[in-house]
Amino acid sequence: MSALAAGSRGAVEAVCVVGALRPDAGSVGTTAIDKRPVDGPVAIGELGLYADVQADRAHHGGPDQAVYAIDAAEAEHWSAQLGRPIPAGGLGENLRVRDLAVDDLEIGACVRAGTALLEVTAPRTPCMTFQRWMGTDDFRARYHERGRTGVYFRVLERGEVRAGDELLVESVPGHGATVAAVYAGARDRDLTRSLVRWADAAGVALHRELEARAQRHLKDER
């Protein structure tokens, strides 16, 4: 699909923070993937939503993964596939978004969520904790194949967000490298180079996984 343009609008269906830490078979031994919707405004700071946490901070959280958003249409897809409801927060998301296909946002697009300004940094990479949480032995592979894994944001302007707030795409870089395209094009050198050129021109740092990919591609071409 084509990239979303500036001026595109949607809505926040739910705002979710960790409900409870859960035991997990991974190396950390616990997970904060159990997100649940909250009422009223929630403050968003540099590291994400107030009262939200990450258990595995080596791989999750930090400024470039401060807020994670999922398209409600994707939750509905997986609900149909799994034959059970997936409530808000059920995919580990902070924001469940309606009427804005977030996977079609370009890396670097700026989105106003409530009074906060967020910048798209990267797609989600599904992990084994996510698979265990979803309760099937093949969910990670199926989620990967689907290729619409949701969006990580960094926070450019602190603010507040609540369910029902508008989402507004305020600006887009115009390079065409959407979240979905970047996720699908992990070995696409042209796509990676376009991101590097944009980041250099804009004076911004790529998400660490995208930067590592770029460095591998540049090394291979020497």
Short recap of the structure:
This protein has helices at 72-82, 128-134, 139-146, 179-184, 189-202, 208-221; strands at residues 9-18, 22-23, 30-31, 35-37, 42-45, 48-49, 67-71, 95-98, 110-113, 116-123, 151-157, 159-161, 166-171. It has 222 residues and is an alpha+beta fold. Helix 5 packs across helix 6 (208-221).
Describe this structure in words.
With 222 residues, this protein is an alpha+beta fold. The protein has six helices and 13 strands. The strands form three sheets. A seven-stranded mixed β-barrel has the order 1-8-7-11-10-9-13. Strands 6-5-12 form a three-stranded antiparallel sheet, with no helix packed on it. Strands 2-3 form a two-stranded antiparallel ribbon. A hairpin with a 2-residue loop joins strand 5 and strand 6.
